[in-house]
Amino acid sequence: MKIKLNNEISVEYPESFAEMTGAELKKSFGSAVRRSGAKNDAKQFFISVSWTDRVSLPTSLFVNEKSCLNKAAARCRRTLSEHRDDGHITREHPTGKVTGFEYSYTQDGTPYHGAAAAIKLCGRIYVVEYRTSSFDRMFCSMAFNMVITSLRPIRGDKR
Amino acid sequence: MKILVLDDHKSIVDDLIYELKEIMPDAECTGISEPAEALALIKDHSYHIAFLDIEMPELNGIEFAKKILAKDPRTNIIYITAHSGYAVECFKTYASAFLEKPIDRDELVDALGHLRFPVSNITDEMVMQEFSGNSMIGKRIVRLREESGMSRQDFIKAMGVSAQTVYRWENGERIPSMATYMKIMQVLGVDIDKML
């Protein structure tokens, strides 16, 4: 399922996933503004892509992949109960390595885990984040990697 | 068991191999994300199972499967793909399974448990040797003798035969007659059930 984000970048969610509504995005990730998401109900797996406005100098000195990840991490710590930081991660994208973090938390007595990774494309920072109660390691890792690597400029726009 | 994983996304190859090693620690897994490398590999190697992506630049997974099967028709082909539309075409290569990415662990385990050509560590040679009768009886004599705590020397003495005769029984080179077999039972103090 290929989705256009802000007419510049497209993302492809796995076929078995359904696109999330604004209400679902707000419930799962706290916001639906400049955010797209998809879910797999069978696995209780939710994944979203959020993005910033275009950043150029001097703003890009302060708004970059690291600052966006720090903001995402702070939001997780603030809003998720029994939140635990599980360390840094790296993922692959055709443009190069992408960094992020993993975390875990509890919701209504159920353990969840998640991860986020940030990448700069076409002057914007894109943060891919997932949350799930599934501990099928391969499924979660594969889904996360698939969405990250699917982020591509539309119509050959420059990076 | 030898397994090949081919996908142009290295992260998918890594994820799948990690999981396969969790499920089957003794399996020998080879992961390739360069199609050219895969073509060279299959010229010299055979695999019990090949996990193949379908849509890859430079190489179509279904065509690659045909090349593998031309060399070894008993290779289990398991397609892994993000697009379900290829299912019909895939099964024309008599695929063992078709897994949609991201791969569910339970579905992977199920696919491995229902291979088109089940894989076993037991070779045809081993089966023939085991069921030829000779080896089976000999091994049983050795096992029961050891279980009874009797040394080979004591066994030879008790049976009243040469060391060479006992050696031949134990190695399947000679089968004892029924009368001798009954004497062996007596000497080892075992019931007929255990000897049969």
TrEMBL record, chain B:
It comes from the Bacteria. GO terms for molecular function: DNA binding. One of its GO terms (biological process) is phosphorelay signal transduction system. The modification 4-aspartylphosphate is found at residue 53. Residues 2-116 form the Response regulatory domain. Pfam families: HTH_3, Response_reg. Keywords: Phosphoprotein. Residues 141-195 form the HTH cro/C1-type domain. SUPFAM superfamilies: CheY-like (SSF52172), lambda repressor-like DNA-binding domains (SSF47413). Gene3D superfamilies: 3.40.50.2300, lambda repressor-like DNA-binding domains. PANTHER family: RESPONSE REGULATORY DOMAIN-CONTAINING PROTEIN, STRESS RESPONSE REGULATOR PROTEIN 1. May play the central regulatory role in sporulation. It may be an element of the effector pathway responsible for the activation of sporulation genes in response to nutritional stress. Spo0A may act in concert with spo0H (a sigma factor) to control the expression of some genes that are critical to the sporulation process. This is Stage 0 sporulation protein A homolog. It comes from Ruminococcus albus 8.
